[in-house]
């Protein structure tokens, strides 16, 4: 199912022409209205009127989170506040929040993009969509809400939290599509199992999950527990919010809304583009946003592009799931390790629960990693020998696949913190 087939399946050649035209007008807009870009373009001798091909994008300066912070709150807006009809902010785990704004037209485009993502997952006007993302300054709740309304679904704006009430509403309102973070979906599933609720009696068909990284193994776990089609959707407030990219029913990569964003993948150290299909940092340039355009925004998210065509017929190129962030990459004894790799391995091992936490400490000059893994009750109360065997087994699997040794500790079921929004998997004590 398509929301806007003409756009989503447009020939690449036409798409590139459209991107170029939209990029040209974006450059003109930022050079005229945003002092930061005006100054940067001048320094780099960039003539926004002289842009003739998409390849020239590489000449443009990057925009980083620091630039956004330095221009807090409205310094990068390209329209006067009277044209801004909505503000959101990203909390940011460190430092100052960043503020983003939308004109009426931006909101229209945003809902269309989210509408595409819902439609490509299978959701339509007959669905009852329960949105368990926070409503507020976070873009998750409102972003998905407007898209779901746009397709004519019946929207339940329940917001995040209050798990028992979520479950009550899932049952009573006959929810068919659940929208939240993947970790929250798992918490809902586990809570329902604990309450002896017959999950098969629910009306749930779809789960649209995003806002945080998750592994393929976690998808399988959610699918098995809830019996639904589970798709991944990606976005970030600085670029727009949810709706930047989403999976189609093939569940193999997320189509990027390329008529609104130009994507690049760079090597975060050299800042040069990686070879096609290689892993690197995603960089987005918005080409339709009026209130808060960004040029070459460095997301710190790591993924690959999948330039080959998708059987669904969409021509927008896909990205793989986000495997981690440049800033949550752990370097242990010189080896790069992403929490997602650890997750994939743990989900594969029998006897463990899909809940874990990674603790990083500095032991003298060396980084030490301890993985806390919840295990099923029977194992926890089993003989010490069995526990030790499981620990050794997990350690071995992790060592083989990561190439380094980490400590493993088994903890009781439900002893690790659960999250209603984004899960916090890594506790880095080195920075405390
Ligand atoms: O999380 C927007 C969003 C809300 C997307 C709901 C999808 C669903 P921020 O709070 O600005 O915006 O956080 C953005 O979250 O840079 C990624 O690191 C991470 N992230 C978002 N979606 C995914 C995903 C929203 N599907 C940051 N997979 C991004 C992995 C994701 N990471």
Compact description:
With 432 residues, the protein is α/β, with parallel strands linked by helices. It has helices at residues 5-8, 12-33, 35-43, 65-70, 104-121, 139-150, 163-172, 182-194, 216-226, 339-347, 377-380, 384-402, and strands at 86-90, 98-102, 128-131, 154-156, 177-180, 206-210, 229-236, 241-247, 254-256, 261-266, 280-286, 297-303, 305-306, 318-319, 324-325, 330-332, 335-337, 352-363, 366-375, 407-411, 426-428. It has 2 domains: 1-327, ANL, N-terminal domain (Rossmann fold, 3-Layer(aba) Sandwich), CATH 3.40.50; 335-428, 2-Layer Sandwich (GMP Synthetase, Chain A, domain 3).
Kindly describe this structure:
Helix 7 (163-172) crosses helix 8. It contains 12 helices and 21 strands. The chain has helices spanning 5-8, 12-33, 35-43, 65-70, 104-121, 139-150, 163-172, 182-194, 216-226, 339-347, 377-380, 384-402; strands at 86-90, 98-102, 128-131, 154-156, 177-180, 206-210, 229-236, 241-247, 254-256, 261-266, 280-286, 297-303, 305-306, 318-319, 324-325, 330-332, 335-337, 352-363, 366-375, 407-411, 426-428. Helix content is 32%, strand content 25%. It is globular, with a radius of gyration of 22 Å. The protein has 2 domains: 1-327, Rossmann fold (3-Layer(aba) Sandwich), CATH 3.40.50; 335-428, GMP Synthetase, Chain A, domain 3 (2-Layer Sandwich). The protein is of the alpha/beta class and 432 residues long. The strands form 5 sheets. Strands 4-3-5-6-7-8-9-14-13 form a 9-stranded mixed sheet. The protein has a 4-stranded antiparallel sheet with strand order 10-11-12-15. The chain binds 5'-O-[hydroxy(phenylacetyl)phosphoryl]adenosine.
